[in-house]
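This part of the workshop introduces the protein records we will be handling. A learned vocabulary of local backbone shapes supplies the integers on the structure line. Getting from the letters to the tokens is the skill we practise here. As an example, a complete record with its sequence and its structure tokens follows.
=====
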Amino acid sequence: MIYIHVPFCHRKCTYCAFYSHGAPASRRQTLYVDNLIEEMRQRRGEQSHPIRTVYFGGGTPSILPLEQLTRIVDALHECFDLSQVEEVTLEANPEDLTVDYLQGLRNIGLVNRLSIGIQTLDDEMLRLIGRRHTAQQALDAVQNAYDAGFHNISVDFIYGLPLHFQSSFFNFQLVTHVSAYALTVEPGTALARQVEQGRVVLPGDDEVVRQYFALHDTLIAKGFVQYEVSNYCRPGCHSRHNSRYWDRTPYLGLGPGAHSFDGLHRRWNGPMGAESGEWRVENEETLTDDDAFNELLMTSLRTTRGIPLDMVPDKYKEELHRKIQPYIACGWIVERSEVGGMRCEPTTEGLLYADGMAADLFLA
């Protein structure tokens, strides 16, 4: 699997802590694509098996002109075996998905799934969090994408905003996947400063939980199933790429700020150079047994399948059994037996507290 980071945005959202730059000049776009293709050629040997998933994330990948995306897709075909590719996702903002852009994307080929960042259908809230599109543009983008032949469409929503997302305005029949994220105030972001200054007042925990269950119940009623704390899909339409992250499948990360994992080592790229547009490996770490176990807990507890006990090394099983009992007692985790062994699965309520439970179960 391959992740490609496109580090450009028209404008940074107030809540965003991801590595990104403002809308680039054409020269900077060209430098980025030149260096991305060079990185592909240098690292092609790190993926000896056929690629099954590719994910264009950001930033905002849909900010790239079609001719630059064509160059990237051509380089992927040149450098990697794509004969068994199942899913290629492009993250996009609604304002970019014009009829012409969508048709051009279809003509390029390879991309067969769109992830559209709607966030909310309230225009006031969109302005508050720094989004450039309107609610109507979001609705039009989904319809235009569907009409262009993209029938595997994921949309992102945020809950925990001062005004909650109104699901009655959205046609869920056009999408196969919904990602629903709790608004998080990340240090150093514009939102963090607005909250500190009292310019933005966010709802309390009880209201955030209420919004979570309201959206959850709506999606279940619409025929979606929850498979991860923030992700819902129509049966069989889960994100194959992201699910492999949670299974700790090795992946190759390309582009500035991108992370890679080979099963034992993690490495991440630094930012783009201001003049050269180049980036280099910024750091690398080798995971210990304890690190790998903690990652297993963190990723597994975020999914409805939970912790597969047959994947837990014997030396950790006794301590895990002891520490997990309070969460079983309060109904946040249930033990289930299935073919292949036992699993400790978080309940719907337990998923709300997945990160806290994982942190408590971590080995120091």
Remarks:
- Residues 121 and 136 are 8 Å apart (CA to CA).
- The domain at 288-364 is CATH 1.10.10.920 (Arc Repressor Mutant, subunit A).
